[in-house]
Automatic annotation (TrEMBL):
<protein>
    <submittedName>
        <fullName>DUF5134 domain-containing protein</fullName>
    </submittedName>
</protein>
<keyword id="KW-0812">Transmembrane</keyword>
<dbReference type="InterPro" id="IPR033458">
    <property type="entry name" value="DUF5134"/>
</dbReference>
<dbReference type="Pfam" id="PF17197">
    <property type="entry name" value="DUF5134"/>
</dbReference>
<keyword id="KW-0472">Membrane</keyword>
<keyword id="KW-1133">Transmembrane helix</keyword>
<feature type="transmembrane region" description="Helical">
    <location>
        <begin position="12"/>
        <end position="30"/>
    </location>
</feature>
<feature type="transmembrane region" description="Helical">
    <location>
        <begin position="37"/>
        <end position="57"/>
    </location>
</feature>
<feature type="transmembrane region" description="Helical">
    <location>
        <begin position="124"/>
        <end position="145"/>
    </location>
</feature>
<feature type="transmembrane region" description="Helical">
    <location>
        <begin position="63"/>
        <end position="83"/>
    </location>
</feature>
Amino acid sequence: MHGSATSPTTSLSSWLLVLLCTVSGAYCLRRARGSDAGAAGEAVMGFGMALMAVPLGGRGDGWRTPVLGVVFCGAALHALWLLRGGPHHAHHLVGSLTMAYLTLMTGPGSEHGQAHAQAAGPPLLTGALLLYYAGYVMLGGTRLITAGDAVSARPAPGRGGPAELVRACRLAMGIGMLAMLLMM
């Protein structure tokens, strides 16, 4: 995704990000099969993030950018449609649009975007997204820590899993998104 696939540090961090996003996506998919239909979008996001983080070293970049762009734009349209049900889905819209942005900025032919980022520092949008996800991760981590005593290990209503595990999955996806933005 970012940098040379031959760099040991980049390769290791990319593969750890792939693992984190795949496990999160698989858990969300399992929840989607149960009683939480809203988890399907989170599963798509997790698997899409995992696919985007795979270090291909320039191989396969020709198909990845357009396919992921279509997937994430479709997810953004779906999240926009779900906004009718309440503001909770605004985060899904931000996430989908962030992934579409990352796909555009890191895909082949994005040399212009990378040259601009190197010449003028990180773009304003990247900085705003970094602040958003840093806040999301901090808030999610705080909620997860404080929920340890207040939330039981019973499945959350309509969630298909323990409330702490659902929160941890969302936190892991937020950390993954923050990592992808930092590696951009």
